[in-house]
Amino acid sequence: MAEIGLAPRFFAARCAATDTPVRVILLQTLIIAALLALDFDAILAIDNFFSAAAATLEFLAAIRLRTAQPELPRPYRIPLSTTPLCLMLALPMACSLVVCYVTLIESATIIGAGLACGLLLYVPFACGWRSTIDVASLSRAASEATQNPMTGALLRTRSSTRGGAATATNLSARHVRTTGTDE
After folding, report:
1. Does residue 50 sit in the same domain as residue 112?
2. Are 42 and 128 within one domain?
3. pLDDT tens digits for 78-90?
4. Whether residue 117 is found in the same domain as residue 45
5. Domain hosting residue 109, numbered range
6. Is residue 57 part of a domain?
7. How do residues 98-138 score in pLDDT, each as one tens digit?
8. Helix axes 40-68 and 82-106, enclosed angle (nearest 10)
């Protein structure tokens, strides 16, 4: 995400020997270590809240994109007009909002702290940092990654002639060796 401008450049640094984003891995490790101090029910409530909130935002983004830029070329398009799309998404959005409400009641303090951290991290993005996002290359990379409908938007595979292994290419065009057979 940092490589395409969706996170601070600080997190884009990679280890020279392994080509792994060490700073991001350390940040994720710290977050997981902090969550280990909580009981299982609190962790489950946090996960459910943020998963349901993310799904709701994705539904709203689909509707907004459909109304704001209807002519935008997409690799996948839902074959419905805007009104049936809204009706189709109404029940999943309602369920997601119920999950958010119920889990917020159970773990309001922890979820509130997570939301506050997210808002603080969003401030630089809202204040102009987002102008560094290369939208053209992001759109091009997403379009290239979705050319193969069998593998989805994040990953596409190519057959390799070396030893029958499959090579996977992610959005940042880095090559990752995976084991498996070439079928």
Report:
1. yes
2. yes
3. 888 889 999 999 9
4. yes
5. 38-133
6. yes
7. 999 999 888 888 888 888 888 887 777 677 665 556 666 66
8. 160
Q: What angle do CA 23, 173, 150 make, to 5 degrees?
A: 115
From the list 128, 154, 146, 176, the residue with the least C-alpha distance to 1 is 154
151 and 127 inside one domain: no
Domain for residue 69, yes or no?
Answer: yes
User: HSE (CB half, 13 Å, CA atoms) of 20?
Assistant: 7
Question: Contact, 75 vs 147, CB < 8 A?
Answer: yes
- Give CA–CA dist 175/177, Å, rounded: 7
Domain identity same for 98 and 76:
yes
Give strand ranges (E) for 78-132: none
Coil, strand or helix at 176: strand
